[in-house]
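STRUCTURE:
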């Protein structure tokens, strides 16, 4: 009798264990079944409207090696025109930045009876030059053109000359700056005309404003030489 009872107990234990295992598999099917591949949802398409250009993402292009933007500007000005205007702007940027460095040099190295006045005057000029440089570079970027960003490019493409190792007098500093501002103004006048040929009224307007700013500085520099 004892043997029968023992066998029954063993059978019951086996049955309960089997049922529990089956139940566990039902509750967690992923643990026992091989995992199926789940397709990742695609990103939503960007609708840019009927008149928009197709998105051209050139992942293989190195941004600094190309004048092409990842998304071409759709501003009514085609790429060849924008590249021509961009070249004008980069030459202007080179001039603006060289003049920034020259003004900074004069701020540091001026020696004058009225040192503080001249030191502050040159500070005002180099700060303006840095702002001008930034504005020109950003105008080029707005056209989808890569802006110059190295001293090598600035020196190579600027029409302005530096005088390394030379320490001018205050009067010579003022004359040098006047000459450089006027050279930039003359170039911008021609470039503003060319912008109209390239059908870029925005850059034409930008250069017109820049001419006014440089002309004001040129006037202040010129006034330094006027006698009462
Ligand atoms: Fe300073």
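SEQUENCE:
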């Amino acid at each position: 009798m004892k043997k029968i009872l023992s066998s029954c107990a063993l059978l019951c234990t086996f049955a309960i264990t089997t049922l529990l295992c089956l139940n566990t598999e039902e509750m967690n099917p992923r643990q026992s079944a091989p995992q199926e591949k789940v397709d990742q949802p695609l990103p939503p398409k960007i609708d840019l409207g009927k008149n928009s250009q197709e998105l051209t993402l050139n992942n293989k292009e190195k941004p600094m090696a190309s004048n092409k933007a990842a998304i071409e500007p759709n501003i009514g000005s085609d790429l060849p025109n924008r590249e021509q205007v961009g070249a004008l702007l980069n030459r202007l940027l080179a001039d603006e930045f060289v003049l920034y460095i020259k003004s900074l040099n004069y701020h540091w190295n001026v020696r004058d009876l009225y040192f503080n006045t001249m030191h502050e005057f040159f500070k005002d000029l180099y700060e303006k030059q840095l702002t001008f440089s930034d504005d020109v570079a950003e105008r080029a970027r707005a056209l989808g053109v890569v802006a110059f960003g190295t001293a090598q490019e600035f020196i190579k493409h600027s029409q302005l000359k530096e005088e390394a190792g030379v320490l001018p007098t205050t009067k010579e500093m003022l004359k040098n700056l006047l000459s450089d501002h006027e050279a930039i103004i003359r170039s911008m006048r021609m470039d503003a005309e060319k912008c109209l040929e390239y059908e870029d009224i925005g850059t034409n307007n930008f250069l017109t404003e820049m001419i006014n700013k440089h002309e004001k500085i040129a006037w202040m520099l010129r006034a330094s030489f006027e006698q009462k």
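REMARK: The chain is about 65% helix and 0% strand.
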